[in-house]
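hey m, so remember when u said the tokens were messed up on ur end? i reran from scratch. heres the input so u can diff it against urs
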Amino acid sequence: MLRSLRDQHGELMIHQSGGCCDGSSPMCYPAGDFLTGDVDEHLGDLDLGDGVVVPVWMTKAQYEYWKHTHLTIDVVPGRGAGFSLEAPEGVRFLIRSRLLTDDEFARLQAAGVL
């Protein structure tokens, strides 16, 4: 889906929504259409496997709640309630999470990530 959206819209970015009209869904935008700043945390990049990555962001305040979780961005059938680029395609991005294991958490702390 991300490759298809990139072909249609150019470089992309994802910002994990914190609520309101779009719930708490990962929102996909053309790169630069959603302005990030000092209140945002860069979580990492989704590697599309062709030398292109899609950066993923969320607010630092939201990150404080979710930093102990493993996050997966999935795509499922259905239409979301936001302005994300995939909405016209009949699918929506969805965040799935699980708590980090004690070992995963310790490794992230040792790496200085947490």
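this time it looks ok to me. The beta strands are 12-16, 26-30, 40-47, 53-59, 69-77, 91-99. if urs says something different then somethings off w ur setup not the seq
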